[in-house]
Automatic annotation (TrEMBL), chain A:
<protein>
    <recommendedName>
        <fullName>Vacuolar fusion protein MON1 homolog</fullName>
    </recommendedName>
</protein>
<feature type="domain" description="FUZ/MON1/HPS1 second Longin">
    <location>
        <begin position="343"/>
        <end position="445"/>
    </location>
</feature>
<dbReference type="GO" id="GO:0099402">
    <property type="term" value="P:plant organ development"/>
</dbReference>
<dbReference type="Pfam" id="PF19036">
    <property type="entry name" value="Fuz_longin_1"/>
</dbReference>
<dbReference type="InterPro" id="IPR043972">
    <property type="entry name" value="FUZ/MON1/HPS1_longin_1"/>
</dbReference>
<feature type="domain" description="FUZ/MON1/HPS1 first Longin">
    <location>
        <begin position="183"/>
        <end position="304"/>
    </location>
</feature>
<dbReference type="GO" id="GO:0045324">
    <property type="term" value="P:late endosome to vacuole transport"/>
</dbReference>
<comment type="function">
    <text>Plays an important role in membrane trafficking through the secretory apparatus.</text>
</comment>
<dbReference type="Pfam" id="PF19037">
    <property type="entry name" value="Fuz_longin_2"/>
</dbReference>
Automatic annotation (TrEMBL), chain B:
<protein>
    <recommendedName>
        <fullName>CCZ1/INTU/HSP4 first Longin domain-containing protein</fullName>
    </recommendedName>
</protein>
<dbReference type="InterPro" id="IPR043987">
    <property type="entry name" value="CCZ1/INTU/HSP4_longin_1"/>
</dbReference>
<feature type="region of interest" description="Disordered">
    <location>
        <begin position="262"/>
        <end position="284"/>
    </location>
</feature>
<dbReference type="InterPro" id="IPR013176">
    <property type="entry name" value="Ccz1"/>
</dbReference>
<comment type="similarity">
    <text>Belongs to the CCZ1 family.</text>
</comment>
<dbReference type="GO" id="GO:0016192">
    <property type="term" value="P:vesicle-mediated transport"/>
</dbReference>
<dbReference type="GO" id="GO:0035658">
    <property type="term" value="C:Mon1-Ccz1 complex"/>
</dbReference>
<dbReference type="Pfam" id="PF19031">
    <property type="entry name" value="Intu_longin_1"/>
</dbReference>
<feature type="domain" description="CCZ1/INTU/HSP4 first Longin">
    <location>
        <begin position="16"/>
        <end position="125"/>
    </location>
</feature>
Length: 618, 497
């Protein structure tokens, strides 16, 4: 019998951990599970069903209403957040050192890296300040309350307004506005202690967190593991990583597979900051409180969560390059390679989240997910951009312990980060904690080459010009269907349906399987607002999930049409193509255009992809 | 051999019915349970299944007040929820096992729950009503237990329950399969229906006519037709009566085997009534088991007889649309099955009046029945009547609750991978449908790894699912195939222009 463990006979796993919340519940763990599950019944308050419902119904379609209504309290809690971050410093460093001491790859505890800046953690306090300032910013992304007004024009203005950091800290599970948020993320420990919540103050969510823990362990006690709960438009997705539980509650129209992938990335981001050796802290003390360790990293997580709705790398598991002339990328690659030869593990030149070039030491390979998490960490932490050094001089170089979860989740590497300008930065990764000065020298060498070949201004120009555009695709005026044997000469109007590219092509993504890289076209009309773009990416995500069904996939081709798009996907051993067309686009022409897109990408592959200059085997 | 034997060994199905309004106080939790299968599980195990379900219903309502928990997907089990009546939930827990092909579509499993509940209501009235009639719950438990157990018996093949797996992805439970009539046959049927409806004098009757396992005509609402059709195919049609020879109907394919029928006649599951949470079921009088197997036979006068409702007692059912109770009389001639529904309120003299109605049917309708049977038999294409060469399809009309599909034997020729791919596609479509408020209009064509095209088309409440093996490799060819099918067999419902 699979679930023969009755609730009244707690299994060993249930009693293994001491009670995490003595203040709220002094009973044993399994009894708490029961009482939790029971209390969920009893306490399901009338507030859910009646009264408060109407209270917020007005704010349903406008998030700002809710935000401003909470404004006063918001100020107070934000203040609390900042001061807490400061208070936590001493504790953080203490634990950080202890983590390192446990880590065989690490240097001895106590040996301070001669870094001009502090560790990443301190720096992030700056970003928690950022959170305070962004509180009043327009809310975007899933931040909006469910069933918000779908208004393209205002939504498009939102994009520019997105700022990292945590919002709605004053909410908790009792607030109706909190329950109506479209997408929640929670990280908690297996004893039910909250570690991270996308919305609301973790401390106020202790009870809710315990409920999540109760659900997970209740199913676990029955010899099973809960993955997903569906209720109407809502999905509750669970991911258990040792002593860390991750939960997503979402009513966004995303697939289970992708939501689970998002939790996986969220976990990876946490490991990037702390390494997997935190597991040992939980082994030693089940009540271990992890929140101080992550103090001030709200911006990192919120930026990652934001990227789930705009960055295809999060579901394609591939990275993208900034388009550059082949020779320039080669020149950059050469100097990065040289640097790696001098004992640097990885050297990367990045522009925002795009790769300019990268190189690695022999046999070292960098997973695209690590690259995503690393660039997110660097880009979202203000501290990497501008820090005050010991002499109170502004500098933009930092040295910080970082873990690459896919490369080695157990050990810290050390990252030297330097911003050349607002967008372009170099990351040098080493296993040696005393390598700051060496890496600084490497950076100077790289900078010299960059200046000499004027790469930085080319990079800026490339940013301004953007990537491929569907409008630039050549329009084939021959009215012949791509499959001549069909004998059906489709009388397709020459002028493309709607706007965008030829034959109603709106957008495409091309992923090279060998290179683990992708490119996507710039958004063109009519996909202009942030909301429309997000919706298109969601459609792609579904298509991706549908093509890569576990155990069956990948499928070869897929055509999908609904009221919003015509989507085509083509998977070969070499590449995957995802293309979005006007829903009224002609099928035969769409196929033809897809072939043209593939040809076009092959024509420019030297500019848009980082070609095998580096000895990586991904 | 009793019911207990079913739950032993490799049995991996759990099914429970519980009432959220009951057992709210500590120590009274058992009161919630109205039905639990397998019945020999300890109370604490039963309570833990129900506790989890109840906890998650409450939890999900925090975020989704309008639609509570529908499914829990765990590593080894799927828990499928169905709120049959307000606060009355049915939960089915099934074990996933890739080796024995336990790959399901959740919606198909939920339709099983829906069907068993609809059938229960049709015969016994709503669960809530029975609970209100006798608040201790003894009455409802004593009715639910044999009813659901009898229903599950039908799914019991080779020592375990055969739930609708991916192999049945080209079927739709909860719909009716219709016989296509030629014009002259349709006129004959219409005239027969007219005669049947007036068999009880001025009292308006209803009728449902089946030929083999296909619906020929109905005067009931679509919902009521679905329930009565499901029951007829289970127990009344010629295929159901000769249950030894397995029905070709794809819905019931292989569900009735000689092994079960021999067993279920000899054993009364009520013998294990002692395991019921409330043992007072017997005090409420005789419990009728409408789904009991092998209890129907054809009488000399052509009417089917059963002692399920007692010797010489005519069965009654509740019609949802009007909430009226009807006697139902089943007349069979060759492969033609006619169900006549007479309002109980109109029958004053009980069985006396009923025999009068029967007599009327024989006197007035016999000739027409003969004629209709002759016409239908002549036009009858056999088991593979609806096979379309090269296609494996399912066509569903949601408004009419009607479906048509390739014959089971033909679907069985598809590769496992093709069926799995189509099953997965149907799952995606289920999700899209549940998210969209209006009727969804969409088209998906997938060329799977094994080169099969799996296709889903939704248009104005109609759905078409297809698997095309050995089709041409181009998308346009596949689309053309759908187009041809649509023009020929769906009156162009899925044509693209």
């Amino acid at each position: 019998m699979a679930t023969s463990d009755s609730s009244s006979s707690p299994s060993s796993s249930g009693t293994e951990f001491a009670d995490p919340n003595p203040s709220t519940d002094p009973e044993t763990n399994s009894e708490r599970v029961q009482s939790q599950l029971e209390s969920m019944n009893l306490s399901q308050p009338s507030e859910v069903s009646d009264g408060s419902h109407t209270e917020f119904s007005g704010g349903d379609d406008d998030d700002n209403d809710v935000a401003s209504a909470n404004g006063n309290e918001g100020g107070v809690s934000n203040g609390g957040l900042v001061s807490e971050g400061v208070a936590g410093i001493s504790g953080e460093e203490e634990i950080e050192v202890s983590l390192r001491a446990e880590n065989p790859v690490e240097m001895e505890a106590g040996e301070e890296p001669p870094s001009p800046t502090s560790s990443g953690y301190d720096g992030e306090r700056g970003s928690s300040g950022g959170a305070t300032s962004t509180y009043k910013a327009d809310d975007v992304s899933e931040d909006e309350i469910r069933e918000a007004n779908v208004d393209g024009d205002t939504a498009s203005q939102h994009e520019a307004a997105w700022l990292p950091g945590k919002r709605h800290v004053d909410e908790d599970d009792a607030s109706m506005s909190w329950r109506k948020r479209k997408k929640h993320f929670f990280i908690l420990s297996n004893s039910g202690k909250p570690i991270y919540s996308r919305y609301g103050d973790e401390h106020k969510l202790a009870g809710f967190s315990a409920t999540l823990q109760a659900i997970i362990s209740f199913v676990e006690n029955g010899g099973d593991r809960v993955n997903l709960i569906k209720a109407g438009k809502h999905q509750v997705v669970f991911l258990v990583k040792g002593p860390i539980y991750l939960v997503c509650i979402s009513c966004t129209d995303e697939t289970y597979e992708y939501l689970r992938g998002q939790l996986d990335l969220l976990y990876g981001q946490m490991i990037l900051i702390l390494t997997k050796s935190i597991d040992r802290c939980f082994e030693k003390n089940a009540k271990f409180d992890m929140t101080p360790l992550l103090g001030g990293t709200d911006a990192v997580f919120s930026s990652l969560v934001h990227s789930f709705s705009w960055n295809p790398a999060t579901f394609l598991h591939a990275y993208t390059c900034l388009p550059l002339p082949y020779a320039l990328r080669q020149a950059t690659g050469t100097i990065l390679q040289d640097v790696c030869a001098s004992g640097v593990l990885f050297s990367l030149l990045m522009c925002r989240h795009k790769v300019v070039s990268l190189a690695g030491a022999q046999k070292a390979s960098l997973h695209p997910d690590d690259l995503l998490l690393l660039s997110n960490f660097v880009m979202s932490s203000e501290s990497f951009r501008q820090v005050l050094n010991i002499l109170s001089i502004r500098t933009s170089e930092s040295f910080s312990p970082i873990c690459l979860p896919r490369y080695n989740a157990q050990a810290f590497l050390h990252a030297y980060v330097h911003f050349f300008d607002d967008d372009t930065y170099v990351i040098l990764l080493t296993t040696r904690s005393d390598a700051f000065h060496h890496l600084k020298d490497c950076r100077v060498r790289i900078e010299t080459v960059l200046l000499k070949s004027n790469i930085l201004s080319v990079v800026q120009r490339s940013i301004a010009e953007g990537g491929m555009r569907v409008e630039d695709l050549p329009i084939d005026r021959r009215r012949r269907s791509s499959t001549a044997n069909q004998g059906q000469d489709t009388a397709v109007p020459e002028v493309s349906v709607g706007t965008g590219g030829p034959c109603g092509l709106w957008h495409f993504m091309y992923r090279s399987i060998y290179l683990d890289q992708y490119i996507n076209s710039e958004f063109s009309p009519p996909v202009t607002s942030h909301r429309q773009q997000k919706s298109l990416y969601r459609a792609y995500q579904k298509l991706y999930a549908s093509m890569h069904v576990k155990g069956l996939g990948p499928h070869k081709t897929q055509y999908r049409r609904d009221e919003n798009y015509t989507l085509l996907c083509w998977v070969t051993p070499d590449f995957e193509l995802y293309a979005a067309f006007d829903p009224l686009a002609d099928k035969a022409m769409a196929i033809k255009i897809c072939n043209q897109v593939c040809q076009r990408v092959k024509d420019v592959e030297n500019e848009v992809f980082l070609q095998g200059a580096s000895p990586f085997s991904w | 051999m009793g019911m207990a034997s079913m739950s032993s060994g490799s049995e991996s199905l759990r099914l429970c019915v519980f009432d959220l309004r009951r057992g709210q106080h500590e120590g009274q939790e058992l009161d919630k349970i109205l039905f639990f299968y397998p019945p020999d599980l300890t109370f604490s195990t039963q309570l833990s299944v129900i506790g989890l379900s109840e906890g998650l219903i409450t939890f999900t309502r925090l975020f989704s007040p309008e639609a509570a928990c529908e499914v829990i997907e765990a590593e080894r089990h799927s828990h499928v929820f169905y709120e049959a009546e307000p606060d009355i939930w049915m939960v089915m827990v099934v074990e996933k096992n890739k080796e024995i092909e336990a790959v399901w579509r959740i919606d198909a499993l939920r339709r099983v729950l829906k069907e068993v509940h609809s059938l229960f209501v049709m015969f016994q009235g709503s669960i809530r009503a029975l609970l209100e009639k006798e608040p201790t719950g003894g009455l409802i438990r004593s009715h639910l237990y044999p009813f659901i157990t009898d229903y599950l018996n039908d799914l019991f093949v080779c020592k375990k329950h055969q739930l609708p797996s991916f192999r049945e992805t080209l079927t739709e439970r909860g719909t009716v399969q219709m016989l296509t009539l030629a014009r002259d046959a349709a006129l004959e049927v219409q005239s027969l229906v007219g005669v049947l409806d007036s068999c009880a004098g001025t009292v308006r009757c209803h009728s449902v006519i089946l030929f083999h396992d296909l619906l020929v005509s109905t005067t009931l609402s679509p919902d009521d037709t679905v329930d009565l059709f499901a029951f007829s195919v289970m127990r009344l049609t010629t295929n159901a009566l000769s249950s030894g020879t397995s029905s070709w109907s794809y819905l019931r394919k292989g569900s009735v085997t000689p092994q079960i029928s021999s067993r279920s006649t000899s054993v009364l599951p009520l013998g294990s009534g002692g395991t019921l949470p409330s043992g007072n079921g017997s005090s409420t009088g005789r419990v009728i088991r409408p789904l009991q197997q092998d209890k129907w036979s054809k009488g000399k006068d052509g009417f089917l007889v059963t002692d399920i409702w007692g010797i010489d007692a005519t069965p009654t059912i509740l019609i949802q649309k009007t909430q009226e109770r009807f006697y139902f009389l089943t007349y069979q001639y060759k492969s033609l099955t006619l169900v006549l529904l007479v309002p109980t309120a109109a029958i004053v003299n009980g069985e006396l009046d009923i025999s009068f109605v029967k007599q009327q049917v024989i006197e007035n309708a016999s000739a027409k029945i003969l004629k209709v049977e002759e016409k239908l038999s002549k036009g009858w294409g056999g088991e593979n009547a609806y096979h379309v060469s090269g296609y494996r399809y399912l066509l569903v009309d949601n408004d009419m609750e009607v479906s048509r599909a390739s014959p089971a034997g033909k679907v069985a020729t598809l590769a496992k991978e093709s069926l799995l791919a189509l099953n997965k596609l149907r799952e995606e479509v289920d999700t899209e449908k549940s998210r969209s408020k209006q009727e969804k209009d969409m088209e998906t064509c997938i060329r799977a790894k094994n080169n099969t095209w799996v296709i889903a088309r939704l248009n104005r409440g109609k759905e078409l699912y297809m698997a095309l093996e050995k089709a041409s490799e181009t998308l346009l060819d596949a689309t053309d195939s759908v187009q041809r099918f649509s023009n020929r067999y769906c009156s162009g419902a899925f044509s693209m222009d």
